[in-house]
Amino acid sequence: MGNFQLVVFFASICLFPALGAVPQPGTSMRDIRNLRHTFCSEHQEYSNNNICCLNCRAGEYVKFPCTKAGHKGTCEECTFGTFTEHANGLNQCFKCTHCRSDQEVVEHCTLTQDTQCKCKPGRFCHPEEACEVCKTCSRCKNDEEVLRNCTSTSDTECKRIQDQADPPSDAVITGVVCGGLLLISAAAVWFCMRRSCRTDPQGSPSDGRKQEKKQEPFPILAPVNGIASLKACFEFFIDLDIDYHRRFFRDLGLTDNDIKSKEHLPYGDKIHELMNIWVEQEGRKASLNDLLEILLNLNQRTTAEKIKDKAVQNCYYCFES
Fold first, then answer.
1. Roughly how many angstroms between the first and final C-alpha of the chain, as a whole number?
2. Torsion (CA) 293, 235, 277, 287 in degrees, nearest 10
3. Which class would CATH give 171-198+218-319?
4. Which CATH code for domain 2-93?
């Protein structure tokens, strides 16, 4: 029996270098046989010097490995700013992700979970794509309406506004309408200039009488192309005095939460987004005349006049007969 053990021992010395495990002096025959079959349980153990150690828990790492098979070594909790998500045999924790400048934090990093980031409002990134940069959300065209608003993981979806009746010749009718509107606009400007000439620099009537007379009624405008005409005029409201914009949108029926949700945007984008919220609430009832009336109630007649003139000059609206 002794001769057989010697044969096995010397055969092991020849075979184990190829297997990456050389028995140490004093290793018993039983240990040599066990070294040939060091297969650790996946997700439960890790291999160290040809013995299987139990994994450390999530949120920990292996500071010192075990010295006896089936035991756990010395585990230590991850330091601040690092994590491990699963039970492991790692010798260090992973560093937490830092959200980019175009992202915001959804959930902060913990010992067992990495930082969760998402694109900031007004930007998006498709989840199935490598999100190297958040893209700017698209805006619907003048002849489109919003089907789905932009989110952090999807772009704005637009839908073409269906015309109620197809005109026989769009080019001819558009030319005629715009030509007529330009003439009406020129007449309106001439009338305003004539009226301003009758007023002295202080705004008092030239005959010295007090302004007891009420201002003339504001003209009613009719859209050339329905809701698309209204949306095309959103950009003109950038003339709205910033000191009045909160009162203006409150009078439109928007909540303070609606207004605050767009505070991070540039002023022009904020006006545009809040207008879209109002249109979604009002639907087909939304009217440029309502917006101008609120400006008049806020004593912002000059701004209302500018917006009216731009709407007419750009052929989005005409004067209602």
1. 119
2. 40
3. mainly alpha
4. 2.10.50.10
156 and 149 in contact (C-beta within 8 Å)? yes
User: Radius of gyration of the chain from Cα atoms?
Assistant: 38
| DSSP state, residue 57 | P
Q: For residue 162, what are the CA distances in angstroms to 7, 208, 218?
A: 91, 55, 31
Place of tokens 């209204």: 230
Q: Decide: 304 and 310 in contact? Cβ < 8 Å.
A: no
Alpha-carbon span 137 to 96, nearest angstrom? 28
**φ/ψ (deg, to 5) at 258:** -60, -45
Q: What is the pLDDT of residues 262-308, one digit of tens each?
A: 888 888 888 889 989 999 888 888 999 999 999 999 988 999 999 98
User: Which residue bears the tokens 């007023």?
Assistant: 199
Tell me the pLDDT tens digit for each residue of 214-225. 567 889 999 988
Cβ–Cβ < 8 Å for 88, 46: yes
- What is the 3-state secondary structure of 280-293? HHHHHHCCHHHHHH
Q: Domain ranges in the chain?
A: 2-93, 103-160, 171-198+218-319
> What is d(CA 193, CA 239) in angstroms, rounded to the nearest whole number?
21
Residue 116 in tokens: 């969760």
Give the C-alpha separation, 135 to 132, whole Å: 10
Contacts of residue 89, Cβ cutoff 8 Å, sequence gap at least 6? 45, 46, 47, 48, 53, 55, 56, 62, 65
Q: Give the strand pairing for 317-319 and 221-223.
A: antiparallel
Q: The whole model's pTM is what? A: 0.39
Q: How many residues does the chain have?
A: 321
Nearest-5° Cα angle at 304, 272 to 269: 15
List the beta strands (DSSP E) in the chain: 45-48, 51-54, 60-64, 74-77, 82-83, 94-95, 103-107, 116-119, 123-124, 135-136, 144-148, 157-160, 221-223, 317-319
